[in-house]
Amino acid sequence: MLTICVFYSCNKAILSDKSTDFTQEFLFTKGIEGPAVDSKGNLFAVNFKEEGTIGKIDKKGKVSLFLKLPNNSVGNGIRFDKDNTMFVADYVNHTVFEVKSGSNKAIVYASDSTMNQPNDLAISPTGVLYLSDPNWAENKGKLWMAKNKKLTLLEENMGTTNGIEVSNDGKKLYVNESVQRKIWVYDINTDDSLSNKKLFASFNDFGLDGMRFDKNSNLYVCRYGKGAVVVLSFLGKTVREIQLTGKNPSNITFGGKNNKQAFVTIADRGCFETFFIE
What we know:
The chain is mainly beta. It has no helices and 26 strands.
């Protein structure tokens, strides 16, 4: 079950069906993306003030510069592994960077010039990365795996691959296609390869962007252009839809106490919006 919290009064939640602002508008560029929370509860996103940066956001929504990526790189997806290493997809130089815990220096983890533009990242419980790789000009996309500092192409000739997420038990991978408005699910094999591709959900309007599972294995999907986040059950059925102020949510993550606070990056407003779940 989902509840949306707007503000607190006398330690009691006042409920609404809409999100609220977490950061000031336009502190980030329209390329705000890759929201991720580290093991210490810090929130991060790409393109703070200018392209190619990563911003760090404290619990009160104050943003500071965390790092600037090298070689004119521009980040998109961010994920953390169990050791608190940050991984960043760089769509300019076809690279995945890693930033070790306690460092603010990005070093190359893996790179492949045949990628279109690595976009969103997902990470398995064992630390294997899966990457969406859209070709927006041709409405096509690829799917990659990054393991032991090596990139492996898993599938090509897909639709415009974008949002990507691993199930909480690490057994399934979910990938959406923005233009085609479909979400696919794969079994993750013991060697981290994929099999048994099936259609999980489809939509008749608006785009799809970043996705995340909550602790109850509900999948939260950003509806780009609709100004909403749709919540899907493990069967792919719509449970709830949260209305946002901005129209172009690009990605979502969870953090805060007991991971009950959602943080949504809003491209058209250059900021974060937030809501709470039960």
